[in-house]
Write a structure and sequence with these properties.
heterodimer; A: 13 helices; B: alpha+beta; 8 helices; about 20% helix; about 30% strand
Chain lengths: ~250, ~325
């Protein structure tokens, strides 16, 4: 490709990327910016429950990512395949699978309901949906972060008299921190923005994505802009800053 | 300190020897020297003494891997303090850095230090752990050739000052030359151990001589019984008279010191028809800080000899005499 043609193609791609965001800025009626009924609740639901889901993802996903980064076992490909399967399953399909397993007639759902945990149209159902949507992304990104830590440094920490746990917290974790932060940010965006899985198993309580959908259905495009702005403001600053930090570190 | 270790995986290896002062474990790459150090540090499954069966964090060893493995997220004093406990860590860490002459660089990150400085920080960190044994893996590999001898001298002086036995794995003859004790590994086992001057004076076999950096170590075969024996050198395609106590028809490694080879100008008649004369082409002239040498092409091999005082025609041939008493032969395993 000739240089001029490359430049033109690159500029066009950037322009296309920017167009939707410019469109939102132009289409928003700034003078009469008013929220629809229930928008505030949706923001509260999304932020609160996404934080719970994120905490679960980090608590369970970090040990798994660490184990995957540091061990090679027979049948490893099965574990890798399972992670990829969860990652590649379309959200709608994942929602249906969750309804099958945890729904009122599902094997786990019946058992959990008897224990008092209703996993349909409830706060726990919302958290479960986000957990499944974001966990594979977090585990894969965190595994890559841990794989970037030289094993030798962890071993040196052992020879300097530290236990494996202290070596993990004082060497592995600090050295993987940027990659782990990026993994957390990725999981945050995935969880907060999840629509397909949530739509199936937790139409209520309504978070931002489902509320955007109902606003669009009930009123039309003009009704989604205020909530859309809030969505961008709460979802993106952290991942954006981390993404830029990672790019700077690489450069 | 007596080392006695047996490794099964990833290669089978067993070694038993004494470490005194600064001991160098000399061996070619791939002999498993690094594996042995890692086994002693507890980082590799192995059986043996000392520290047998203990997890790495309970072994009193200071392990300095190749490349020093400083923590990149910590500065120099924090790296040293990593081995320390308690509120007084910082002051102690700086004191250790002072011992290796680096207190002024305590705030620097590893990336801002030279190879030699990184090594001294790693040494300070290993010493701060108060080990009973120091393990150094290829300590000369990351050093600048111009300052290497001085960095090594300092390293050894610091090890002596600390009064801790140190075991350094290396393939570097220059490090072997400054050791208190030399242990030579070949074919995955210890083939010779002793003071460096003893090992240098009497290498146990041709492989040891090569590892020590001796030039002119070649393979050959003895023909005839002692008294009228000749050494057939296939690569040079000559048979040289030798004096050995070995029986005839023995495969040997042989060596001659470059200083022992007598050079004669091509036209000269001196010793012209004598036994043990080899005709060689001058290939390369090496003028270094420790004298001048000639690389001489003999058939398919090369002999090194001390440069003669007369001027040489580098394109021409030269006649060499290898005195029979100067040739040392070792039977091959």
């Amino acid at each position: 490709m000739r240089p001029r043609l490359t430049t033109f193609a690159a500029a066009l791609a950037l322009l296309l990327l920017a167009a939707p965001f410019a469109g939102l800025a132009i289409a928003t009626d700034w003078r009469h910016l008013g929220f629809a009924r229930g928008d505030g609740d949706a923001v509260a639901v999304s932020l609160g429950l996404s934080l719970v889901a994120l905490a679960l993802i980090v608590a369970l996903g970090t040990p798994l990512a660490w184990w995957l980064a540091r061990h090679r076992v027979r049948g490893q490909w099965l574990v890798d395949a399972l992670l990829l399967l969860a990652l590649l399953t379309p959200p709608l399909a994942m929602g249906l699978l969750l309804a099958t397993m945890y729904g009122p007639y599902g094997p786990a759902g019946q058992w959990l309901e008897r224990a008092g945990l209703l996993l349909t149209n409830s706060a726990p159902a919302f958290v479960i949906a986000q957990f499944y949507a974001a966990l594979p992304y977090y585990v894969l990104a965190a595994r890559a972060a841990f794989e970037g830590v030289p094993r030798e440094l962890e071993q040196i920490a052992l020879t300097l008299g530290h236990s494996p746990a202290r070596s993990f917290f004082r060497v592995s974790l600090p050295l993987a921190r940027l990659g782990l932060a990026a993994a957390v940010a990725l999981a945050w965006v995935r969880a907060l923005g999840e629509f397909g899985v949530v739509l199936i198993v937790a139409y209520y309580p309504q978070g931002i994505p489902v509320k955007l959908w109902t606003n669009l259905q009930d009123t039309g495009l003009s009704a989604v802009y205020p909530l859309l702005w809030v969505f961008f403001l709460v979802a993106l600053p952290l991942p954006l800053a981390l993404g830029l930090a990672v790019r700077r570190r690489l450069a | 300190m007596r080392i006695d270790y047996r490794i099964e995986h990833p290669v089978a290896l067993s070694a038993s020897f004494e470490v005194e002062g600064f001991t160098v474990l000399l061996g070619a790459s791939g002999e498993g020297k690094s594996l042995l150090l890692r086994a002693i540090a507890g980082l590799l499954p192995a059986r043996g003494e000392p520290f047998g069966g203990l997890p790495p964090q309970q072994r009193a060893v200071g392990y300095l891997p190749q490349g020093h493995a400083l923590f990149p997220h910590l500065n120099a004093w924090q790296n040293v303090a990593f081995a320390l406990r308690g509120a007084d860590r910082r002051r102690q860490a700086v004191a250790w850095l002072e011992r290796v002459g680096l207190a002024a660089l305590a705030e620097r990150r590893p990336a801002q230090l030279s190879g030699g400085q990184q090594q001294r920080v790693a040494l300070a960190r290993a010493l701060a752990r108060r080990p009973q044994l120091l393990l150094l893996d290829e300590p000369t590999s990351a050093l600048d050739p111009a300052t290497r001898d001085d960095v090594l001298a300092e390293l050894i002086a610091e090890v002596h000052a600390a009064g801790i036995p140190a075991l350094a794995a290396s393939h570097d003859p220059a490090l072997a030359a400054v050791a208190d004790r030399l242990v030579v590994m070949h074919g995955r086992r210890i083939v010779q151990a002793g003071a460096p001057w003893e090992v240098h004076a009497r290498p146990a076999n041709g492989a040891v001589a090569r590892l020590l950096g001796h030039r002119n170590v070649h393979g050959g075969r003895l023909v005839g019984e002692p008294g009228a024996q000749r050494l057939f050198w296939p690569e040079g395609n000559v048979a040289l008279p030798v004096e050995t106590g070995l029986p005839g028809d023995t495969a040997v490694d042989w060596h001659i010191a470059p200083e022992a080879i007598e050079l004669h100008e091509a036209g000269g008649a001196a010793a012209g028809d004598a036994d043990g004369v080899v005709v060689a082409a001058t290939e390369v002239r090496q003028a270094g800080a420790h004298g001048s040498y000639l690389g001489l092409r003999c058939g398919q091999a090369r002999l090194w000899a001390r440069s003669p005082p007369w001027s040489l025609d580098m394109a021409g041939t030269i006649r060499l005499r290898l005195p029979p008493t100067a040739i040392r032969c070792w039977p091959r395993d």
